[in-house]
Amino acid sequence: MRIGLISDIHGNSLALEAVLTALSDEVDHIMFLGDLCGYYPFVEECVALWDENPIIGIRGNHDQTFLDCLQNRTQPSTDYQASYGSALKRTLQNLSSSSASLLQSLPLSHTLTLNEVVLTLYHGAPWDPLNGRVYPNCDDWDRFSDLPGDVILLGHTHYPLIKQHRHKLIINPGSVGQPRDRSDGACFAILDLASGMVQHRRVPFDPRPLIEDARQYDPGLTYLGEVLSR
After folding, report:
1. What is the pLDDT of residues 16-35, one digit of tens each?
2. Which end of the chain is less crowded, N or C, counting CB atoms within 10 A of the terminal residue's CB?
3. Residue 10 to residues 43, 142, 172, Cα–Cα distance (Å)
């Protein structure tokens, strides 16, 4: 059994479509590790693609901000928009019931067993599911030793990671929507449960519509475009 691993889409439907096309004939399941929204505004398009695919997912920190705004009937704070732009605000203004339902259905973490392999899904870190960060240069892998699960799946950092620590396999598939490791294309991973082998993959997408949108709505946050054109 082969599992497609995706994370940190951030409203980038163009990258998500390219990744899902690449995965369509290669995997039995797709697992999503959080942050469907934030940074870029094409969440409705992402939800339409999600609905066409068998995806098991959890929520990320930007998804949580979205849900807090939805519940409290507020807009993202000025500090949030100053850091991340207007995409989340615009997503809330144009929200469909199907998008709201999908985001509300995402748990903070998830554990499941496939082919007798126990997988645990977190966006951040097991000890801080929304905001913890585990980078490839982490120097405290022993924190994972006594955690439940054979395979621990993480997102949030936007950096791909594969680490075998004792009896734990720790994976971050990198970011679909906003990769930050200065490599071309949307990043994802494929896990073969039978062999334990993990492959990181990349697929190209056209970032120009996202860059143009960022320049129009958030001209002061130049990194929103720059990070997609490195």
Report:
1. 999 999 999 899 999 999 99
2. C
3. 8, 31, 16
Single pTM value for the model: 0.96
Number of compact structural domains in the chain: 1
| C-beta of residue 173 within 8 angstroms of C-beta of residue 200 | yes
Q: What's the N-to-C CA distance of the chain in angstroms?
A: 35
pLDDT by residue (tens digit) across 52-80? 998 999 999 999 999 999 999 999 999 99
The structure tokens listed for 92 are 């809330």
DSSP state string for the chain:
-EEEEE---TT-HHHHHHHHHHHTTT-SEEEE-S--SSSSS-HHHHHHHHHTS-EEE---HHHHHHHHHHHHT-PPPHHHHHHH-SHHHHHHHT--HHHHHHHHH--SEEEEEETTEEEEEESSBTTBTTT----TT-S-GGGGTTSS-SEEE--SS-SEEEEEETTEEEEEE--SS---SS-SSEEEEEEETTT--EEEEEE----HHHHHHHHHH-TT-THHHHTT--
Q: What would the pLDDT profile of 112-162 be if each residue is shown by its tens digit?
A: 999 999 999 999 999 999 999 999 999 899 999 989 899 999 999 999 999
The CATH number linked to 157 is 3.60.21.10
Structural domain span for residue 47: 2-226
